[in-house]
């Protein structure tokens, strides 16, 4: 195992800050599957082998918690929702929320996706031919609308524009914090912190309004919000979740459930525009659908290539490019002792390029995921949705949404890049194109 000290890392500081995934990739190429960064008081281990990842995320997951800078920073917005909580509390909430992601509910997701997609396509239809739009922004808007409607029956576009804005402002702050580890603490009344606090207040107000209005209406809806409001916590003698707990879960799902899918879609469009032959093949598959209406759930089985495009985009540009854990007790990885308190760093971006598991790893080749070939990929060499008990609760939701949106847009539009050269991926909360992704809309 290679150990890199602060002195070794100093010359790479700018790369680490601007292009952390690229830096981690270089480390893995140069030093192998287990690297220690010995900086400050914490020992940091970067692991990049399916067996080691399996050990941390699955086989010995009880020994690893989410008490890390990454999740603690996110928790300043989400509180201890499903994504950031641990232990018994996490398990109870996971069980509570799981039914909202059951097969039968997901089968009805197309009824939410189609109207949101249709509204976007109508807007695009009003643009002049060859208009340029920021696809990143468009994908963010449509996915936020879908998750709001699917899980909470709220129309975020018309009912809660303030909520949308507050989510985005608060996320910006998380990014600012991550990029500026030595920035003044959150409690100092500097302008950046004040606007963060204002965004948090707005978020709270908007979420509590949603809760209040559901209570006032007396309506019993069987969406996730209804489930959370009705849930009784057996552990605490059958008491209901507090408003704070419900708020934390709502914000968690809005954040985890929209920017990730949007990012995967944006990179899919980027890759498709660079590989016209792949787009042609996808277009052919889409044009074989029985009629011209937007694709719906039963059409998914006719769209294996479109699904492969989405999976391959998730491989090259995994939105959740970083997964971290803190070791609660000692462990052993590859024969090396991992002390309690160590930080474990896993990067889907890097393992998805491991030359032992991926041939021509940098190439965009959706056929890796067709014809049963995907079954030969080792489970923990492909982890866009994580793995083990903390596997993304929305993985199937995201696949359905991603494929239906790709197919629906391909029925009517061809998207061409409106920027020259390669687009840089910014490692923010998710992997996002630097300065958005301007694309030209060409009607088919
Ligand atoms: C392409 C889209 C998505 C990607 C790439 C993605 C990725 C991930 C990853 C990697 C994790 C595990 C993090 C870890 O182990 O530390 C995760 C967890 C989670 N995701 Fe997703 N996600 C996506 C879509 C969604 C959607 C659509 C939802 C909800 C509607 C969602 C909700 C969550 C939640 C609540 C967790 C925490 C689960 C738990 O710990 O029990 N995600 N996601």
From TrEMBL:
InterPro entries reported in the protein's UniProt record? Cyt_P450 (IPR001128), Cyt_P450_CS (IPR017972), Cyt_P450_E_grp-I (IPR002401), Cyt_P450_sf (IPR036396), Cytochrome_P450_Monoox (IPR050196)
> Keywords on this record?
Heme, Iron, Metal-binding, Monooxygenase, Oxidoreductase
Q: Which residues bind heme?
A: 392
- CDD domains membership: CYP132-like
Q: What does this protein need as cofactor?
A: heme
Q: Which Pfam families match?
A: p450
Q: Name one GO molecular function term.
A: iron ion binding
What protein family is recorded?
Belongs to the cytochrome P450 family.
- Name of the protein this chain belongs to: Cytochrome P450
The scientific name of the source species is Bellilinea caldifistulae
